[in-house]
Amino acid sequence: MPFTTEEFQDACRQLDNPDVSEFEFFVEYMDVKIYRKYNEESGLYEYITFGTIDVKPEICHQVYIDLDYRKKWDSYVKALYEVTEGDRKGIYWNCNFPFPMSNRDYIFERESQEFDLDGRHVFVTLGRSAEFSSVPEKSGVIRVDDFKQSLAITANGDTGSKAFMHYYDNPKGMIPTWLINWAAKTGVPGFLQNMTDACKGYPEYLEKKKQKEGR
After folding, report:
1. CA Rg, the chain, in Å?
2. Distance from C-alpha of 201 to C-alpha of 55, rounded to nearest angstrom
3. CA 20 to 30 Å from 23, out of 39, 42, 87, 158?
4. Which pTM was predicted?
5. For residues 35 and 184, is the Cβ–Cβ distance under 8 A?
6. From CA 5, how far away is CA 8, in angstroms rounded?
């Protein structure tokens, strides 16, 4: 099922006025605030993250969707690749979890679009769990089949980016609540720092890749 125009437009709207009326403030890191909302059905939280980071929006967007580069800078990636099934395309991601927990893997659809709104260029990427029969569940790895994410990025009026993200997944298994909270409080700031560093190193990565392919 394709993403709707409304879903993309909603992510754009959230850039300027994030709707956190049903969310509680969770943590702030650098210039990014994180809010969360309890999901009664799963007993887990969904998160809204918004703020600014000191990288250009076009680079931030490209780093986010570049799977090969992600494997180089994100230590949580065990496997990450595109999946094609008929006319459908998806992404498979095997995520490293700390011992003694089992790794989790995701299979999801993702789509990116760009918009020009009120004099600004906005990059939007949406993702959600999907079934691909060509990628069956693996022994010893827990399949996450309840995942959704929206990300919108634009310029912050200076040399950096303004971003909004809405995220939820259910990793299943017996993971203590305190561990999930700890991971959210430390993992999200850590990810933001790693991604910022990855963005700053992206031009060099592309140059080296170009030279290697030119040999």
Report:
1. 17
2. 11
3. 158
4. 0.90
5. no
6. 5
39 φ, ψ to 5°?
-100, 110
Q: Which residues does 42 contact at the CB level (< 8 Å), separation at least 6?
A: 146, 170
Return the pLDDT at 101: 81
Listed residue (31, 30, 29, 34) closest to 49, CA to CA: 34
**Under-70 pLDDT residues of the chain:** 1, 214-215
Sign of CA dihedral 169, 125, 134, 140: negative
According to DSSP, residue 21 is labeled T
Please, are residues 120 and 101 in contact by the beta-carbon 8 Å criterion? no
Contact 88, 132 (CB under 8 A): yes
Q: Kindly state the percentage of the chain with pLDDT values over 90.
A: 62
Beta carbons of 74 and 94 less than 8 angstroms apart: no
Q: What are the tokens at 136? A: 């069956």
Of 211, 3, 188, 16, which Cα lies nearest the Cα of 117?
A: 16
The answer, yes or no, to whether the previous bond of 100 is cis (omega within 30 of 0) is yes
Q: Any idea what DSSP says for residue 78?
A: E
* DSSP sequence for 176-202: -HHHHHHHHHHHHHHHHHHHHHHHHHH
Which DSSP letter does residue 67 get? H
